[in-house]
Design brief:
The chain has a 5-stranded antiparallel sheet, with no helix packed on it. The protein has no helices and 5 strands. Helix content is 0%, strand content 67%. Strand 2 and strand 3 form a beta hairpin.
Length: 61
């Protein structure tokens, strides 16, 4: 599965926690997500309700 880039990734867990990661790539799989930075795995969650990638606003008008 191809990794998707995110400026900010929010991961919502079954226990209502939210984990946030900046400047990452991620792969979503059934029930979980694996998060990478610079090609290295930095986190793996298997208790995920949802993951949302957000893009930062740019400074222009």
């Amino acid at each position: 599965m191809a990794a998707t880039r995110a400026d900010l990734l929010e991961v919502r867990h079954h226990d209502d926690r939210v984990s946030r990661y900046e400047q990452v790539t991620y792969c979503v799989w059934v029930g979980g997500v694996t998060i990478y930075r610079d090609g290295a795995e930095i986190a793996r969650h298997d208790d995920v309700l949802g993951a949302m990638a957000l893009k930062r606003a740019t400074g222009g008008h």
